[in-house]
């Protein structure tokens, strides 16, 4: 049957990409349908119940700055929060939260159910309705046809999913969920390049069977940092500790002795796994000289005894998993509640997408999340939001939007994927961003919320909070700049102990804030305060301090961007034959012919395409005109 209502945007898959896509399109006023296998698993964390980390929290804050769900759900569900790299510069500082997986799902589901313009429907999708080269809707496994103007596909690890535990294999989208095989076959018949990747998860352990007295305790930070710009400490549930255990020589012996029973080492798994989240068998094999690996024992929630032993993801047979776990000090009597496993799945070459995440071959069809070769909830959520935005913009008949690499990690993520593709599950790192001093997690709102507001993603409450913060920063900077400290004054005396030499001239507070020895807290109450009040908003204080201390570096980076921008927009004709560009090596010609970058800047970011090659392209384009 044809479902009676027609939708603007149909999102398939209620994981991290699909939920952000559906929420974004609905926030932008589109009649949106989220079709998913199971409403109970909306927002389910397939693996580690943790959000954020280096490079990843940057994405979460960007999703949040654009009105998305992940940051708020994390603040409502986080049971341990920490700032990573706290002693390093602000560009690489990151927030990580251990989440209660039940609370996280409930929070996401609550946001979805209460979102105007959004309809949920539970059923697997087996087919897409494609008319010529344009998608028109989706067909569920019982034959219900949903018609829509745009479709966003966010099917995660479910396409052609095969689960491995030792040499046993069975089909599945993740443990306990069916794969999406009919849809996988349908997509393989369309002209996309498809390949296989794999990922894995550790066994889960019953906390009652663990001796915590011999493990190192790792408490969270106090006060607990916030993930959302709209978050508050009061939202955070009870906070708990994680613990640290270690593998040992005996653990490694067990693994070595059983490598022939590992699907990875016996050649059963074809897909490439995540380099930065390797299985324990991979770590022991690749770093054979390391005597021990850390295992973070992380709670899965406040109302469950299950623990997630982060660091021993494995697809070894169950009997070996048990031996491995029980070889670890503190886990000698551990009971495994769920075996670890690896999963192989289809992904589509992201070079077949545009920056809007629309596919190049089928109009109005967008791909987001793990289906594009990424790994991680944050990478999926960010892509989902972008695809949802661009599907909504298509419905409105407006041009697509994608932030540039100097505006957002989201821009870096999409640009990397589209320009270079990926041969292994792609995860975000701060090192992937050449302008990371500008793309800090603390300023994602200052970079993106205004754009989000103009797109229709940001509601009045967030806009009001953001506007007040932005204004407070400017006012406080002006006050600091206008407040002078005289040498020999009582204020200068208060600072003397912190400075190598007493002040020898008049300084304003903003100048003093740039000095490495002084922090905002040392200066804020020195001579009056913002509007005569205490500056209690820690986020305003943080911005004032970071902007002052890093101003020189930030300006230099901005200068580089401005230089690049002069050429960034230079378009590369779609029919350009790179073999005809003189001076390019054959390797670079091949890469450019394969990647078909849309602009000169994109060409320059393809690995192996040197600045000299970009200059040759520019000369060629000028001659061609
Ligand atoms: P998913 O979260 O997989 O969601 C897909 C959704 O689509 C599901 O709700 C599913 O039911 C639905 N769906 C699929 N097909 C259909 C269909 N035909 N019709 C209707 N609904 C459909 N990431 C890391 O960063 N580190 C790790 O160590 C890690 N380990 C992992 C281990 C395992 C075993 C798995 C399964 C994943 C792991 N991940 C890991 C990846 C992480 O879970 C994903 O990156 C993230 O969940 C991707 O989000 P997504 O929205 O793209 O897809």
Model description:
- With 625 residues, this protein is α+β, with helices and mostly antiparallel strands.
- The chain has 20 helices and 22 strands.
- The strands form five sheets. Strands 1, 2, 6, 7, 8, 9 and 20 form a seven-stranded mixed sheet that branches.
- A hairpin with a 6-residue loop joins β16 (294-299) and β17.
- Homodimer. Heterotetramer of two MnmE and two MnmG subunits.
- NAD-binding protein involved in the addition of a carboxymethylaminomethyl (cmnm) group at the wobble position (U34) of certain tRNAs, forming tRNA-cmnm(5)s(2)U34.
What descriptive keywords fit this protein?
625 residues, alpha+beta, 22 strands, binds flavin-adenine dinucleotide, single chain, six-stranded antiparallel sheet
């Amino acid at each position: 049957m044809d479902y009676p209502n027609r939708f603007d945007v149909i999102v398939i898959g209620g994981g991290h990409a699909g939920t952000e896509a559906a929420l974004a399109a609905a926030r932008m006023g589109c009649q949106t349908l989220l079709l998913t296998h199971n409403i109970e698993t909306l927002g389910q964390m397939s693996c580690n119940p943790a959000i954020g980390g280096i490079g990843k929290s940057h994405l979460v804050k960007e999703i949040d700055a654009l009105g998305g769900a992940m940051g708020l759900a994390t603040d409502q569900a986080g049971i341990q929060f920490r700032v990573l790299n706290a002693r390093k510069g602000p560009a690489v500082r990151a927030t990580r939260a251990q989440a209660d997986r039940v609370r996280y799902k409930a929070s996401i589901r609550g946001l979805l159910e209460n979102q105007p313009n959004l309809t949920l429907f539970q059923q697997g999708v087996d087919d897409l309705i494609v008319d010529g080269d344009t998608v028109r809707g989706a067909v569920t496994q019982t034959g219900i046809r949903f018609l829509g103007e745009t479709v966003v596909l966010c099917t995660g690890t479910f396409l052609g999913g095969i689960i491995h535990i030792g040499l046993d294999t069975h089909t599945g989208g993740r443990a306990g969920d069916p794969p999406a095989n009919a849809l996988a076959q349908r997509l393989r018949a369309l002209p996309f390049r498809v390949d296989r990747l794999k990922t894995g998860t550790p066994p889960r352990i019953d906390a009652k069977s663990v001796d915590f007295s011999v493990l190192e305790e790792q408490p969270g930070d106090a006060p607990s940092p916030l993930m959302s710009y709209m978050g508050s400490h009061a939202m955070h549930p009870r906070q708990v500790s994680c613990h640290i255990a270690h593998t040992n020589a005996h653990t490694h012996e067990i693994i070595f002795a059983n490598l022939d029973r590992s699907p990875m080492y016996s050649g059963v798994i074809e897909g490439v796994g995540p380099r930065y989240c390797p299985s324990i068998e991979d770590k022991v094999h690749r770093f054979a000289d390391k005597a021990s690996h850390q295992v973070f024992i992380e709670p899965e929630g406040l109302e469950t005894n299950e623990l997630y032993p982060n660091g021993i993801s494995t697809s070894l047979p169950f009997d070996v998993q048990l031996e491995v776990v029980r070889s670890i000090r503190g886990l000698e009597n551990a009971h495994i509640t769920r075996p670890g496993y690896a999963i192989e799945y289809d992904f589509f070459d992201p070079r077949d997408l545009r920056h809007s995440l629309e596919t190049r071959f089928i109009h109005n069809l967008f791909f987001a999340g793990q289906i594009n070769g990424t790994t991680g909830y944050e990478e999926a959520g960010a892509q989902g939001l972008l695809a949802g935005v661009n599907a909504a913009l298509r419905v409105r008949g407006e041009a697509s939007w994608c932030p540039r690499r100097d505006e957002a990690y989201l821009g870096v993520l999409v640009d990397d994927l589209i320009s270079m593709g990926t041969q292994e599950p792609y995860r975000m790192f701060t090192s992937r961003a050449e302008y990371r001093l500008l793309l800090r997690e603390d300023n994602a709102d200052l970079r993106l919320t205004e754009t989000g507001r103009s797109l229709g993603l940001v509601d009045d409450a967030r806009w009001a909070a953001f506007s007040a913060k932005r204004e407070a920063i400017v006012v406080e900077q002006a006050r600091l700049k206008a407040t002078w400290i005289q040498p020999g004054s009582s204020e200068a005396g208060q600072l003397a102990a912190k400075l190598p030499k007493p002040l020898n001239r008049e300084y304003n507070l903003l100048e003093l804030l740039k000095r490495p020895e002084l922090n905002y807290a040392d200066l804020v109450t020195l001579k009056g305060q913002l509007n005569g009040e205490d500056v209690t908003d820690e986020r305003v204080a943080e911005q004032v301090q970071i902007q002052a201390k890093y101003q020189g570096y930030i300006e230099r980076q901005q200068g580089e961007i401005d230089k690049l921008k002069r050429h960034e927009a230079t378009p590369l004709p779609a029919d350009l034959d790179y073999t005809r560009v003189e001076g390019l090596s054959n390797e670079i010609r091949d890469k450019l012919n394969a990647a078909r970058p849309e602009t000169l800047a994109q060409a320059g970011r393809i690995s192996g395409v040197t600045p000299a090659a970009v200059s040759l392209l520019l000369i060629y384009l000028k001659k061609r005109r």
